[in-house]
Design goal:
The structure holds 2 protein chains of 2 kinds. Chain A is an alpha/beta fold. Chain A contains 11 helices and 10 strands. Chain A is globular, with a radius of gyration of 20 Å. Chain B has a 4-stranded antiparallel beta sheet with strand order 1-2-5-6. A two-stranded antiparallel sheet of chain B has the order 3-4. Chain B is α+β, with helices and mostly antiparallel strands. In chain B, a hairpin with a 5-residue loop joins strand 3 and strand 4. The chains are: A alpha/beta, B alpha+beta. Chains A and B meet through helix 2, helix 3 and helix 6 of A and helix 8 and helix 9 of B.
């Protein structure tokens, strides 16, 4: 197997004394989509921002290698070349991620100027091309439109076009559909999946929506309280979860575990980063927890088993 | 908020408020008059006539359907002050487009056939050296009205650069720039100006004096504005579209200039309108004290020098007119600034 496009090893992120992400390790192969799921506050967004070096006032340790290049010790100039050029990001809320004072065309031209060195008429032509590729009708006229003149779905398409215009190797999509209507969600997901295939990019798809992740991801990584608890091919993890947290998460979503009939909820809520429990961080909410869970952190073995002392048996 | 939305909101606010319309109209009138001073003013700013020292405003008479003025001559009263009397035997018509100016007396018609003396048109009276106050007022407006605009532009520019960098980059950049701001805010500006004027040569050209006043006022005045801009930019730093632009690899300085600073322009427009009067007043104050524009150059401040004592005001009440012009300009700016704020800031209720 060739070297993965992105290899994150033991990534820890601290804000002051609070550790928000604890020794996270991920790999994304070329042409693969990795879904990163977890509840709000588990460290998804922070992890994805750290891939772009965009965390203010955080201490990031560990290693992030993209295409064999170590990112964590990059100079500001080096980071600028990576951002938008090698890793691009699609943000959650299309209503606020576009500058209200600039036209759509200007937004796209900015990326093309920065990464492709295009200016003037040429940049304009490429900008229109990208709008067309993301399925915006009448692209030449839309270049003159201001963000407030577009619908939410249109804006998200513009943001996707901006992210793709630098022709990155990896697209980080941070909950790109949560702010959209359900019907638009499906369109945007299909668009992302199609473009990813066409441009042979890899994608890190961050979401809390298991329905969405089933649709786009090849592999799935489940995050709980800043730690990775389970990782594996989407089909396997969603059908046969082996970590009690993943299992509980699936049981609370209609449609996945039809045989239970009744939706369950995981008791309690995600503790805040400053009061994360010792041992396995899920143990206060887990019905399988034993004494060892309170004291010893379970490792995540590389063979697909979950980070759990008492994992569910396959098929249980 | 887009450009067109702002414009139309401003138009709406204008339609709603009579005061706003009046103040903008007054400002437009004052600036137009100052810009066209060379053409509107009947005389040059230093065109003096010793025979007309402190001549009162000319009385316009309608003779044969056109406005005319009588020539005036003077005798002395018991306290040796000039008393002007009209010579009704002659009437000189006020003509449009004479001597290359908008209106005035024809220079040939104005000369008396008997003694060769020349009649003058003083719509607002004359000063001690017989110079036309209206003309001096119009020329003086060039300085008094431009000083605020130039000064605010300079200080706004400095404030944008300093405040923008401090707010956007934070950390030690922020801390050091803000300390510099505080040092500038400590300077007591009026005393500094008096000190500078005392140490700098007195024979400087008026234009140099003008420029140095503007520069000094704006070099002192930027600090407060810079702090506000810093705050605005700081709150914008975590805005999604700023993070998005950075995530696309745009250079931070470009992000600051293109994405962050333009968001403060609405606030700046209000702030500029409201701080221009400060510059106008400061210049007038300096010129009034003889620290600014020097005679024969004119500004509204140094015109007011002549009405500094109550006796002067009693004898020549027209010498207060520059104060009226000053009052109008400052009031209009304040009202216009308020209207702008109503238009641009939807939160501030009336």
């Amino acid at each position: 197997m060739t070297e993965p496009l992105l290899a994150v090893r033991d990534l820890s992120i601290r804000f002051g004394d609070t550790e928000v992400v604890d020794r996270l390790s991920l790999t994304i192969r070329r042409g693969e989509t990795l879904g990163l799921v977890g509840e709000s506050g588990c460290g998804k967004s922070v992890s994805s921002l750290s891939l772009l070096g965009l965390l203010h006032g955080a201490r990031v340790t560990g290693s992030i290698r993209l295409d064999g290049q170590e990112l964590t010790n990059l100079s500001p100039q080096g980071w600028r070349r990576v951002r938008g050029g090698k890793i691009a990001m699609v943000f959650q809320d299309p209503m606020t991620a576009l500058n209200p004072l600039l036209t759509v065309g200007r937004h796209l031209e900015e990326v093309l100027e920065t990464h492709k060195g295009l200016r003037g008429r040429e940049a304009r032509k490429f900008a229109a091309d990208w709008l067309e590729k993301v399925g915006i009708p009448d692209p030449v006229r839309r270049l003159e439109a201001y963000p407030h003149e577009l619908s939410g779905g249109m804006r998200q398409r513009v943001l996707i076009a901006m992210a793709l215009a630098g022709e990155p190797d990896l697209l980080v999509a941070d909950e790109p559909t949560t702010a959209l209507d359900v019907t638009i969600q499906a369109q945007i997901l299909d668009l992302l999946a199609n473009l990813r295939r066409e441009l042979s990019m890899s994608m890190l798809f961050v979401t809390h929506d298991l329905g969405v992740v089933e649709r786009v991801a090849d592999r799935l990584a489940v995050l709980y309280a800043g730690r990775l608890v389970e990782e594996g091919p989407v089909g396997e993890v969603l059908v046969r979860p082996r970590h009690p947290y993943t299992e509980g998460l699936l049981a609370s979503v209609p449609g996945f575990r039809a045989r239970t009939g009744r939706l369950r909820s995981i008791p309690g809520q995600v503790p805040s980063p400053s009061e994360w429990p010792s041992g396995c961080r899920f143990h206060p909410r887990c019905d399988r927890a034993g004494d060892i869970c309170r004291t010893t952190r379970p490792d995540l073995p590389p063979d697909g088993r979950p980070a759990c002392h008492f994992p569910l048996e396959a098929g249980s | 908020m887009s450009g067109t939305a702002t414009t139309s909101r401003f138009a709406l606010a204008l339609r709603g408020s009579l005061l706003a319309r009046l103040s903008l109209g007054t400002l437009a009138f004052l600036y137009l008059a100052a810009i066209l001073a060379g053409w509107i003013a009947p005389y040059g700013y230093d065109d003096e006539s010793r025979a007309h020292s402190w001549a009162p405003p000319s009385q316009l008479r309608w003779i044969q359907g056109r406005p005319c003025v009588h020539p005036v001559s003077f005798s002395f009263d018991e306290s040796a002050r000039r008393v002007y009397v009209e010579d009704t035997s002659r009437a000189i018509p006020v003509r449009l487009f004479v001597n290359g100016r908008l209106f005035g007396l024809d220079s040939l018609e104005a000369i008396s056939p008997q003694d060769g003396s020349s009649a003058r048109l003083y719509l607002l009276g004359a000063d001690a050296r017989g110079r036309d106050l209206l003309s001096r007022l119009l020329y003086g407006g060039r300085i008094s009205l431009s000083i605020g605009v130039v000064g605010v532009s300079i200080s706004t520019f400095i404030a944008l650069v300093v405040g923008g960098l401090a707010g956007f980059f934070g950390g030690w950049v922020d801390r050091s720039l803000m300390r510099v701001c505080e040092i500038f805010m400590l300077i007591p500006s009026f005393y500094l100006l008096m000190l500078l004027r005392a140490t700098l040569p007195l024979d400087w050209d008026s234009r140099v004096v003008y420029l140095s006043i503007v520069l000094i006022l704006s070099l002192i005045g930027w600090a407060g504005l810079a702090r506000v801009i810093r705050g605005l930019v700081q709150s914008l730093r975590s805005a999604d579209y700023i993070v998005a632009a950075r995530a696309l690899g745009v250079h931070p300085l470009v992000v600051l200039r293109r994405h962050a600073l333009p968001q403060t322009f609405g606030f700046l427009a209000i702030q500029a309108t409201l701080s221009i009067p400060g510059y106008i007043i400061a210049e007038s104050g300096l010129s009034l004290l003889g620290l600014g524009i020097q005679d024969p150059q004119t500004s509204w401040g140094n015109l007011l020098q002549e009405s500094m004592s109550i006796a002067e005001i009693h004898l020549h009440p027209w010498s207060l007119i520059p104060g009226l012009a000053l009052f109008l300009a400052v009031l209009s700016y304040n009202l216009a600034g308020d209207a702008l704020r109503d238009a641009l800031d939807p939160r501030g209720g009336r």
